[in-house]
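ARCHIVE CARD
CATEGORY: sequence design from structure
SOURCE FIELD: tokenized fold
FIELD CONTENT:
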């Protein structure tokens, strides 16, 4: 029951962050969070976003089961993110993203999820 409550709270926070970051638009579509959003977000907004990503990964992994199909294994970002980011705390990932964008201001248009995947998770999974 606690897990469901945490998931609902995290999704609510993620939606709140999305509405704050996308508030200037009247378009109901979800905003893809980029470095521009990340670098202007508060610490709490960043943590809420990462909790939302973490919960999404947990839900996807649970739905895939212990033996996901070959199609899922070969096309999903979920296993890469889970394996590549395992052992890192939310605050550590937040700090890594803060530093990554700070050192690369020309990369602010790249989405946070892309940076998590290509810059942090992929290099950590070992081939």
């Amino acid at each position: 029951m606690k897990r469901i409550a945490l998931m609902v709270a995290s999704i609510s926070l993620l939606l709140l962050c999305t509405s704050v970051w996308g508030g200037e638009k009247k378009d109901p579509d979800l905003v893809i969070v980029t470095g521009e959003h990340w670098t202007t977000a508060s610490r709490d907004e960043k943590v809420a976003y990462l909790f939302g990503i973490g919960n999404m990964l947990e839900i996807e992994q649970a739905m895939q089961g212990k033996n996901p199909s070959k199609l899922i294994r070969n096309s999903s970002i979920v296993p890469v993110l889970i394996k590549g980011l395992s052992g890192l705390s939310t605050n550590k990932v937040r700090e890594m993203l803060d530093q990554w964008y700070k050192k690369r201001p020309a990369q602010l248009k790249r989405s946070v999820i892309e940076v998590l995947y290509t810059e942090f998770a992929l290099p950590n999974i070992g081939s």
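CARD ANNOTATION: The radius of gyration is 15 Å. The first helix runs from residue 2 to 21.
SHELF: design records, drawer C
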